[in-house]
Amino acid sequence: MDESTLIRHAANGDMTAWEPLVLAHQTAVFRLSYLLLGDPDDAEDIAQETFLRAWKHLKHFDATRPLRPWLLSIASNLASNRRRSAGRYFAALTRAFRDEPTSLTMEENSSQRTQAHDLWKAVQTMNLADQQIVYLRYFIDLSVAETAEVLQVAEGTVKSRLSRALAKLRNIIQEDFPVLVQGPKA
Amino acid sequence: MNEMDFENRLRSIANGMEYPRTPDIAGSVTARLHTATRSRFNSKALAWSLTIILVLCSSLMLIPSARAAILEFIQIGVVRIFPQPVTPTIEPIRNATPVVQAPKTATSSSESLIPILNQMAGKTTLADVQKKVDFPILLPSYPSDLGEPDYVYIQNADGNMVILVWLDPQRPDKVFLSLHFIPSDSWVINKMGPKIIQETQVNGQRAIWAEGPYPLIMRDGNVDFTRLIEGHVLIWADNNITYRLETDLNMAAAVKIAESLKPIP
Questions:
Q1: B178 and chain A: CB distance < 8 Å anywhere?
Q2: Where are the alpha helices (DSSP H) in chain B?
Q3: Which ipTM score applies to this complex?
């Protein structure tokens, strides 16, 4: 059964049609939430909430359109709200008293993983709108058209926003993470 | 490096990003949808059940021993602590997050907390915060070398809640102490069955020392959430302000810090 058929069945209340759609998109939704929030618990909450909200509003969704951008759009909005919530602050602050540093994990990381992590740190210093567009394009690997659907703007707007975000990111990288543009040491 | 090369480089680096394992979201979502469907079908029956429970509770309230058991929780300011581990009888809360143990992941506290502290709403300065609230902001004078907080926030939690955060000077990626000033008309915070609860005093006022893990429920009528808290917390109230001091230190040290609070010079 293709995606649009599953969406139509799910929109009519068929939960067995919704489950394979969740399975197909849960990783992308979870990963975007994780990138935006930096916490796996928060990301899981947001991912669950995304699919529950999507289910609730599925009747209004055009089944001929791809589902993923719509889901990522919901996740992105929910994650943005969560970023500023007091609840998240309490949870993170409390964990900070208890967690031990995970230097071992970092030591085990390959150079590629370390670079990806440094890139993430660089992106985290940008404003939320810039972070969203960078994550969608380069981490989640969406096309310009899909990114435009997620952000609900025209493709031209995505290109111009992306260009500005890239200029900022390039400055941040050159300043704080120059190895990322120089490539790994031999 | 031109823009296209730069984009390709970013994409290539981002491909190496290590994510936590994706949890079973499909399973959780399906379970929650089934529960929601069942509760919709059963809403009429539930309404009757709740009515019966309310009647039973009202009857029990007439018996002194039963009344004591039902009302047995410790209230300090806006914080309620239920001493016994209780099976939550609260209905599933809208917008609530599930109680889950923070898994040990590759993300260390230093990596997750500092960006959050930097992005938190209401970040302000010590000089400004006192102008924005009508209660005195107090700072610990113990330990003597503590100095001013590294982060100061003011957040609207149905009242202006103030949060001060001190980082560990030896480990600037780690929080040493946080102090919350929560006005009386603010959020209600419930702690369900902490591992250790000990009554103590701060300047002669009743105070509670609680050690996790325990679920913490916060609610203000619109927003509810539940989290598993593992920290050590000293809670006391004075002049309509609830103070919540969180630290890795022991109770005696926490009380000493609490008793050393003084207005900003």
A1: yes
A2: 3-14, 25-41, 43-60, 64-70, 109-119, 126-132, 251-259
A3: 0.84
